[in-house]
Inverse folding.
């Protein structure tokens, strides 16, 4: 099922400089695999050696941080928007 | 709207690269804040050997009475810095608050009167905008809980830079007015700070603006080191034993630590283990929770506290703050909104300093630590007051009594004075005498 993914600048070298992608998956974990399929190499940037999402990355599904949902198990449905946003400092 | 292009590196500059704090990858000195390999935060790397050879106590003391006396330790190459008198705020030896808390050597670093906008943010913004100009930006921006927006708008006005700042829509009136007066474009976003930050992350790359806390973050955050340098210099070139500071994103806390470490490294002060204790509000305490539960990662929270300047539910430097507190033998505590108001009043009544909610949080945590015996009375302890109470008047309204309204007659005054001495003011505040 198609999901829109917003890709941050440091990862756009894997996406032909595209800031948004259409991808599919029933969960964030599945989405990561499908991203890797269309953009080889991207998953190892998003995840650490243990396969966990890197701790300085924030992933949102329709504006909600997945850490408030089910983490990598968060389910996705048609038309969802997933944003990948590096952490920034505060003020 | 000019995108940064080249970096003019003067020969006097002591910074050499941007380096990932996590994996060590190095990058050019551009407007960039995230490691392309692991997404860790980038930090400015310095040539400490060169600093050791060129900087002395005397060269610092001969510099301006502002943060720019520490220019060799700051990531700017120009001689033409934006100096609006930021920094060198008083370090007061506390008498009455110290006695109240049973501490013998308590100092208050008072950034409630930092220039030009009455918070420590003027330090980071002076550095960020000087660097922004150097990198060729003509528009500057930020995501802010209020103080940063005030500071960015004011210093951009002084420097003649265009300015667009983003804040959560529900901020205190004083913080909104305190930005608008400088005529920036002010975006009040319907959402909390973390949502503002996320929006700005997405905007940052599309308009070619210098976002002080996003693409300029490695430079910006270095400005907080001056809160470490100044305390060391003002204590007579010595480090304190213990500091207590507020925690929002965790950046200030870790940069004070870095400031102390750098002074030791280049031989300006003797090495010492300074204990670092941090303060959060219970309504937004993701760093305190991670510290208490012994975690090395932060679980974000949705903030609900009057301490809006500390209301960052997803603090970027939280893990580093936890690490700093742990390795130095410090503590991280959280206090309730009621304790925060009491903290604001306690500082005002004992020291004559009116701080905002962040300062109230810090004083309340200082009190909690002192009462729990977690501060040795003989330790030289510095509490950092980072903002001004006039900006968050709503927080204390209704808790501070009211004026005694009297007729312009001597007997009306005498009656009122008599009653003020015999009755609790709060009980009779509405009574006309």
């Amino acid at each position: 099922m198609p999901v829109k993914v917003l890709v941050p600048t440091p990862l756009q070298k894997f996406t032909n400089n595209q800031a948004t992608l259409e991808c599919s998956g029933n969960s964030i974990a599945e989405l990561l695999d499908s991203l890797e399929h269309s953009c080889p190499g991207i998953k190892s940037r998003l995840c650490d050696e243990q396969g966990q999402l890197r701790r300085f990355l924030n992933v949102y599904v329709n504006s909600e941080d997945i850490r408030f949902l089910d983490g990598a198990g968060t389910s996705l449905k048609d038309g969802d928007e997933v944003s990948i946003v590096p952490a920034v400092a505060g003020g | 709207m000019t995108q940064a292009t080249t970096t003019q590196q003067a020969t006097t500059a002591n910074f050499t690269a941007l380096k990932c704090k996590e994996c060590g990858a190095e990058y050019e000195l551009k407007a960039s804040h995230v490691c392309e390999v692991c997404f860790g935060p980038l930090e400015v790397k310095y040539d400490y050997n060169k600093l050791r050879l060129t900087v002395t106590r005397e060269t610092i003391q001969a510099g301006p009475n502002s943060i720019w006396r520490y220019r060799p330790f700051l990531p700017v190459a120009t001689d033409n810095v934006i100096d609006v008198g930021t920094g060198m705020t008083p370090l007061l030896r506390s008498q009455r608050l110290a006695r109240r808390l049973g501490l013998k050597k308590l100092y208050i670093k008072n950034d409630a009167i930092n220039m030009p906008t009455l918070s420590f943010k003027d330090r980071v913004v002076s550095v960020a905008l000087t660097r922004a100009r150097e990198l060729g930006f003509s528009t500057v921006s930020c995501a802010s809980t209020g103080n940063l927006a005030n500071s960015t708008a004011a210093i951009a006005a002084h420097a003649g830079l265009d300015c667009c700042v983003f804040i959560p829509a529900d901020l205190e009136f004083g913080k909104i007015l305190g930005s608008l007066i400088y005529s920036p474009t002010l975006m009040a976003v319907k959402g909390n700070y973390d949502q503002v930050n996320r929006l700005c992350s997405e905007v940052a790359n599309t308009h070619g603006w210098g976002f002080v806390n996003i693409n300029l973050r490695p430079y910006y955050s270095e400005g907080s080191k001056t809160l470490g340098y100044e305390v060391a210099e003002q204590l007579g070139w010595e480090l304190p034993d213990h500091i207590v500071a507020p925690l929002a994103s965790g950046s200030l806390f870790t940069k004070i630590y870095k400031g102390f470490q750098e002074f030791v490294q280049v031989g300006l002060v003797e090495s010492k283990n300074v204990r670092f204790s941090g303060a959060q509000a219970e309504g937004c305490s993701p760093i305190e929770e991670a510290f208490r539960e012994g975690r090395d990662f932060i679980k974000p929270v949705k903030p609900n506290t009057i301490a809006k300047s500390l209301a960052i539910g997803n603090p970027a430097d939280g893990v580093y703050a936890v690490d700093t507190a742990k390795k130095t033998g410090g503590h991280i505590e959280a206090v309730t909104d009621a304790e925060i108001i009491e903290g604001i009043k306690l500082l005002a009544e004992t020291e004559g300093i009116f701080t905002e909610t962040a300062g109230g949080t810090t004083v309340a945590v200082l009190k909690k630590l002192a009462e729990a015996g977690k501060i040795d009375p003989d330790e030289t302890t510095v509490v950092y007051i980072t903002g001004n109470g006039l900006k968050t008047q709503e927080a204390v309204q209704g808790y501070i009594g009211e004026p005694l309204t009297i007729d312009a007659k001597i007997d009306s005054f005498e009656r009122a004075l008599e009653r003020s001495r015999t009755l609790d003011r709060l009980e009779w505040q509405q009574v006309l005498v």
